[in-house]
């Protein structure tokens, strides 16, 4: 694909589609200089720190039109990606970024649809072994309604 070819593809887009392309290009450019992956930039993923009192790592993401499905709700795969990303960030906070860590399993229960605004997740480490970390995550919308919960096992090694 050349820039000329891309320009031709863009010619018949409506105003909303052009805005979507603009947002995706901005996320792609942010990913060049950010430690976050492209999809994390598209989600506006943010680490909100550790809540010592509740023993949870907090994260958030923004529901945008680009992340909604045909029913105008947050796509379930994006919800799962948000949870997996929050858990992955939690692993790095717990064991350090010099270790390689991957998801072994992820079980997500969808409770309510994610509709709009910021979603907040809280991830709790259930068990941290030498190479295995078990976690649980809950996700709420801005109205403090639970929209999803998940459990996962990560493998981490030097």
From TrEMBL:
Catalyzed reactions: a medium-chain fatty acyl-CoA + H2O = a medium-chain fatty acid + CoA + H(+); a fatty acyl-CoA + H2O = a fatty acid + CoA + H(+); a long-chain fatty acyl-CoA + H2O = a long-chain fatty acid + CoA + H(+)
GO molecular function: fatty acyl-CoA hydrolase activity
Residue ranges occupied by any Thioesterase domain in the UniProt entry: 72-147
Entry's EC annotation: 3.1.2.20
InterPro entries for this protein: HotDog_dom_sf (IPR029069), PAAI_dom (IPR003736), Thioestr_dom (IPR006683)
This protein's record includes keyword Lipid biosynthesis: no
Keywords for this protein: Hydrolase
Database matches in Gene3D superfamilies: Hotdog Thioesterase (3.10.129.10)
NCBIfam families: unchar_dom_1
Family assignment from sequence similarity: Belongs to the YigI thioesterase family.
Protein name: Medium/long-chain acyl-CoA thioesterase YigI
Organism: Marininema mesophilum
Species lineage: Bacteria, Bacillati, Bacillota, Bacilli, Bacillales
């Amino acid at each position: 694909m050349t820039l000329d070819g891309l320009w031709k593809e863009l010619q018949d887009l409506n105003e909303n589609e052009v805005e979507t392309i603009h947002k995706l290009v901005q996320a792609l450019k942010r990913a060049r200089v950010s430690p976050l992956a492209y999809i994390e930039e598209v989600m506006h993923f943010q680490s909100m720190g550790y809540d010592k009192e509740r023993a949870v790592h907090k994260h958030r993401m923004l529901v945008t039109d680009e992340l909604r499905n045909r029913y105008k709700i947050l796509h379930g795969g994006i919800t799962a990606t948000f949870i997996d990303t929050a858990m992955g960030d939690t692993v790095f906070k717990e064991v350090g970024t010099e270790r390689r860590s991957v998801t072994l399993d992820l079980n997500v229960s969808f409770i309510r649809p994610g509709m709009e605004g910021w979603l907040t997740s809280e991830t709790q480490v259930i068990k941290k072994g030498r190479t295995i970390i078990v976690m649980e995550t809950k996700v709420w919308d801005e109205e403090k309604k639970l929209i999803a919960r998940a459990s996962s096992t990560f493998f981490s090694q030097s």
